[in-house]
């Protein structure tokens, strides 16, 4: 088992950061391969809470190299801010961070475009994180106005910026009806040259590094951002992010071929959440939804927006688990469900009077989907102190057994609180040392 992948199976915030932190020891590298500072991954170590956005969640473990691979869109100011924060909190091994020279760089025009474009899908707005993610990926694919991290160290960087900024100023003026102040290429050059200088010792060809490492038999952990339902190709388009967050993005984002990706852990909340716009069949707009939000502290890590909450959707998760080739489930935030008399799992959708287990490819169909629920008994005991599977209430066992059955994948990890210790590893092969 060389490559272990951790991906979210819902709409993000499934607690991937906690799982990555847990699994990091024993790995040579931890790799972020898509997304950018739209991600917010929380790692709790004792009394310390770390909110990581661009840096891989493995960064808190010494002797591990953390890699931001080429599929990520990189906001250099944010990398520096996160590094400085960690250093100020006594994390001394941040030199272990490697940044791919292939990452595409986020510039001020990307933030401006994100703000203007977010509500222009012709309907409900996407509700992006406004971190410039979509516009940067668009420029990457279009090629003509893109800058990769490696380009910032080339002699023609200034010339290239002048050309891009002059075009972007015309585009932004038109998009904003002349409301936006023109961007100043010289000021941007100065600012980004400072970032380039600060980050230079971290920049390298991470594809070569990873391939060499895997060829030598070293273990690599891949950290997904967002969740599979936000995947640009396979998610609830257009209410998605702009990268392949489903697991199909691991190879293209990291440069590591599928033959090394042996194990795929699908992280899933014991219920569902979504932040931003788009259809959400099992959303609860009642007091049960508020109960989940309150107990789960369901407010966005990046934007602090209240997350939309609902019952677990096994139609959606079965789809994303199949799409990701998931080998084991990590069922997170089980403690949040304590105190509910009954729990519901969506086992099928009714669309136009017909029942189906197929997740629709078009949002218009998904909007019509009425969840068909199975009701299971809940439990009232608090489970945050449980440290073994057997200590969990029988109804919690039943609930998870049913999820595993509906998804078709066994449960590898159960989480009963944010702390490292509040984790029950069912599949002992994941952490050989415990
Ligand atoms: P990520 O983006 O997938 O890494 O997830 P986030 O960090 O955005 O959101 C998950 C939140 O749940 C964080 O605040 C975690 O500290 C918290 N968390 C993780 N596992 C558990 C758990 O088992 N129970 C509870 N109550 N909170 C958890
Ligand atoms: P982590 O890694 C939850 C959502 C945004 C919006 C849509 C597009 O913490 O799970 P973007 O800024 O990417 O163009 O926004 O995707 N979104 C997330 N939701 N968790 C995330 O990341 C998210 N990253 C993006 O709310 O609906
Ligand atoms: Mg998050």
Structural class: alpha/beta
* Mean pLDDT across residues: 96
Shape: globular
- Major β-sheet annotation: 10 strands, mixed
Bound compounds, please? guanosine-5'-diphosphate, 6-O-phosphoryl inosine monophosphate, magnesium ion
- Unreliable residue stretches: none
Count every beta strand, where a strand is a DSSP E run of 2 or more residues. Answer: 20
Summarize this structure briefly.
The protein is α/β, with parallel strands linked by helices and about 425 residues long. About 30% of the residues lie in helices and about 20% in strands.
Write up what this structure looks like.
The protein is of the alpha/beta class and 434 residues long. The protein has helices at 16-23, 76-88, 108-117, 133-142, 157-175, 185-199, 206-215, 249-254, 287-296, 314-323, 363-368, 394-407, and strands at 3-8, 29-32, 41-45, 48-52, 65-68, 73-74, 97-100, 104-105, 203-204, 220-227, 261-269, 272-274, 308-310, 312-313, 328-332, 342-351, 354-356, 370-377, 411-415, 423-425. Bound molecules: guanosine-5'-diphosphate, 6-O-phosphoryl inosine monophosphate and magnesium ion. Guanosine-5'-diphosphate binds next to helix 1 and strand 3. Residues 8, 12-18, 39-42, 44, 296, 301, 332-333, 335-336, 415-418 line the site of guanosine-5'-diphosphate.
Structural features:
single chain, 434 residues, alpha/beta, ten-stranded mixed sheet, four-stranded mixed sheet, 12 helices, 21% strand, globular, binds guanosine-5'-diphosphate, binds 6-O-phosphoryl inosine monophosphate, binds magnesium ion
